[in-house]
């Protein structure tokens, strides 16, 4: 891992909670734990986590209620639901409340680790594509802030590097201006930022496109946003 991943474990059964804490700490994660919905809510208000492992059946405030509340507050931290319930409708309810994945007890610790890493790859571009990768025929080095092709290189800004990295992690998928702004600027779009994203896209196209007026790498999807064509 390039940096320590912070995980919140929300589980009311002490033995399970402690086992998860011990295992993930052994694997190099920074771990915080909560035994009920009230503690979990306070933890998320006080600290930023990279992923939340959330038991569905919790005292005081259920996992489903917590998940729905966080999503309503636009907290986008990946959430994996943990529950003894295995019925289809319970899985659907958990996912509909905003969970990113769902694992049914009993589960192996290695399976849980695989699901955590999978969710992190989907939500963290650096983990999905790394720091050096190919993008639209260019060799990209986000650490050095340089791109090169056919022996020709040029510098990019840190913002442009983040944009390239996010598009590279989501090939063939429409990325809205709101999503791009939230991921790259780490903030929510309020209105004027629409122009900000468009200006940065235009500058980036000027560096990577053969003909910026007719882009072939980052294309505009009218009324929806942008898409990286790999």
From TrEMBL:
Q: Which GO terms describe its biological process?
A: regulation of DNA-templated transcription
Q: Which SMART domains match?
A: REC (SM00448), Trans_reg_C (SM00862)
A molecular function GO annotation: phosphorelay response regulator activity
Can you supply one Gene Ontology CC term for this chain's record?
A: cytosol
Task: Point out residues bearing the modification 4-aspartylphosphate.
Answer: 55
Instruction: Tell me the domain of life.
Output: Bacteria
What Pfam families does the entry give? Response_reg, Trans_reg_C
List the stretches of this chain annotated as a DNA-binding region.
Answer: 130-230
Q: Which residues form the OmpR/PhoB-type domain?
A: 130-230
Q: Where is the Response regulatory domain?
A: 6-120
User: What keywords tag this UniProt record?
Assistant: DNA-binding, Phosphoprotein, Transcription, Transcription regulation, Two-component regulatory system
According to UniProt, the name of this protein is: Sensory transduction protein regX3
Q: From which lineage does this chain's organism come?
A: Bacteria, Pseudomonadati, Planctomycetota, Phycisphaerae, Sedimentisphaerales
């Amino acid at each position: 891992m390039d940096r320590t991943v912070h995980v919140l474990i929300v589980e009311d059964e002490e033995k399970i909670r402690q086992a998860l804490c011990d295992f993930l700490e052994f694997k190099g994660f920074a771990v915080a734990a909560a035994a009920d919905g009230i503690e979990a809510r306070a933890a998320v208000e006080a600290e930023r986590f990279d992923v939340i492992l959330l038991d569905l059946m919790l005292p005081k405030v259920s996992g489903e209620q917590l998940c729905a509340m966080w999503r309503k507050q636009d907290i986008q931290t990946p959430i994996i639901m943990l529950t003894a319930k295995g019925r289809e409708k319970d899985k659907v309810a958990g996912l509909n409340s905003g969970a990113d994945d769902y694992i049914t007890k009993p589960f192996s610790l290695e399976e849980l680790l695989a699901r955590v890493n999978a969710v992190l790859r989907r939500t963290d571009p650096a983990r999905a594509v790394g720091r050096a990768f190919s993008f639209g025929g260019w060799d990209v080095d986000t650490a050095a802030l340089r791109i090169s092709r056919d022996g020709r290189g040029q510098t990019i800004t840190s913002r442009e590097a983040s944009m390239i990295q996010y598009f590279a992690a989501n090939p063939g998928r429409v990325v809205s201006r709101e999503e791009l702004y939230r991921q790259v600027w780490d903030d929510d779009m309020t209105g004027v930022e629409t122009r900000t994203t468009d200006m940065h896209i235009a500058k980036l196209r000027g560096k990577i496109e053969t003909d910026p007026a007719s882009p072939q790498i980052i294309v505009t999807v009218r009324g929806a946003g942008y898409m990286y064509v790999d």
